[in-house]
Amino acid sequence: MIKVLKAGFFTTIQDKGRFGFSSIGVPFSGVMDTFSADLANTILNNNLDYAVLEIAFNNCSFQFLTATNICISGADFSPKINQKAIKLNQKIVIKKNDVLSFGKVNFGARTYVAVSNGILSEKVLNSRSMFAGITKSYTIKTGDILQINQNYNEENNTNASIKVNENYFKSKAIECFKGPEFDLLSKKQQKQLFETGFTISKDSDRMGYRLIEVLENNFPSILTSSVLPGTVQLTPSGKLIILMRDCQITGGYPRILQLNEASINRIAQKNTNEIVNFECLSV
């Protein structure tokens, strides 16, 4: 078991998300950065659909009430075990009563903590991913006890680590494809879209990343249509919204771009006031 000593600003349990329920309005949810979560699970030899902790904005700590292995991937929030610094992307042996804490943000926006055999929270609609109105809680809270596999065996413990290029977190390039309403844009608007550096606003979360710069919008209203994570909507004000993992199932704004999976992962590691550039992969 893991005791949450300090929950931090926004810490959740996430897995790959819940699929097959969009017809009843249930979002996909799941880890924001699948690359980093998959990496942590892979290093521990876990299944890729095992639940992990997704931590945003650091400032949290956990006490392990049973021995296990962990791996931390994604953003660098200066992780420590018992106040001693530990490395990212490496299997870490945890003993009973060890305390994991996070401090200074060095890069990235979300870090992932995988444990051997995953976090064993309740499954709802085939997923452990937290989401308001679906799971009992939207985030973990200070004092919570998180269930993990208690049959951990320290024998045959091996070290494993992977080096990740920090350019993954620092690159401004966001690859995308043309969206269904892209051709409604004038040539001038299309050029502006791909030549402008867009700044991530403070009004960004797991539902969507809102961008500050404005693209002229003189489109008529469109019928509400399907959207999915990575859809880039152009709002009536001219501002763009990049829909993320907790986004709604349908929307009424023009869908001018669609991010690929790698770009959804990359944008999930961007913080407020960082700048991104769209790069079109469509022919």
UniProtKB/TrEMBL annotation:
It comes from the Bacteria. Residues 23-283 form the Carboxyltransferase domain. InterPro entries: CT_A_B (IPR003778), Cyclophilin-like_dom_sf (IPR029000), PxpC (IPR052708). GO terms for molecular function: ATP binding; hydrolase activity; transferase activity. Keywords: ATP-binding, Hydrolase, Nucleotide-binding, Transferase. The keyword Ion transport does not apply. Gene3D superfamilies: Cyclophilin-like (2.40.100.10). Pfam families: CT_A_B (PF02626). This is Biotin-dependent carboxyltransferase family protein. The lineage of its organism: Bacteria, Pseudomonadati, Bacteroidota, Flavobacteriia, Flavobacteriales.
